[in-house]
Amino acid sequence: xxxxxxxxxxxxxxxxxxxxxxxxxxxxxxxxxxxxxxxxxxxxxxxxxxxxxxxxxxxxxxxxxxxxxxxxxxxxxxxxxxxxxxxxxxxxxxxxxxxxxxxxxxxxxxxxxxxxxxxxxxxxxxxxxxxxxxxxxxxxxxxxxxxxxxxxxxxxxxxxxxxxxxxxxxxxxxxxxxxxxxxxxxxxxxxxxxxxxxxxxxxxxxxxxxxxxxxxxxxxxxxxxxxxxxxxxxxxxxxxxxxxxxxxxxxxxxxxxxxx
Length: 260
What we know:
Layout: E1 9-14, H1 19-28, E2 33-39, H2 44-53, E3 56-61, H3 67-78, E4 88-93, H4 109-134, E5 140-146, H5 159-180, E6 187-192, H6 199-205, H7 215-223, H8 230-241, E7 251-253
Parallel strand pairs: 1-2, 1-4, 2-3, 4-5, 5-6, 6-7
Helix pairs in contact: 1-8, 3-4, 4-5
């Protein structure tokens, strides 16, 4: 008698080309895992790592300022799978961008549009495509939106980024209500990952102090050793994703590491 095939787990990850996204991708490469990344570019190193780990990796170069195109392609790709193909399926909306760090009065309309499209519009469109395409799947379904503390408190010269993350938090709450009454409804969470030593942090530290009053605070975070490495941040995020109570709190912080 042929033994049953081991379970497969599907992960879809945006923003996997650098920082915490790249670390997440690397840590998701494990036997039995199928990983699809949507990023600015592809990585030969990640492909080699997937082969060595026995994981299935598909990398799509994607411009997430055109979320409609990306979500349409995702819906078509998911339609090729059957309802029992995966023991679990997870969408991780990680991509984001910080436009020019200036007061809103000095912001350029194209920069604002791009930040909101990548940080809010694309996650909503990809989430809609994922939930629609997997609604009849039998395995556990999860959506993890990488949010930020800046979606929960205002900061000068950060209007677009703060607005995108605040919108992400609230649309996640709405989706949680949508899914609560559905058969095998998805569990969703907008998770703040803490303060991470990434290119975004360098961008904030390098901003014009006259336009960005909080620049000194970000410099102190680095000087005080308060920044988490992308690899450690990814481990914490994936540990939160694996929690039994994931989704019980639709808006959360990775530093709340005790199950409630």
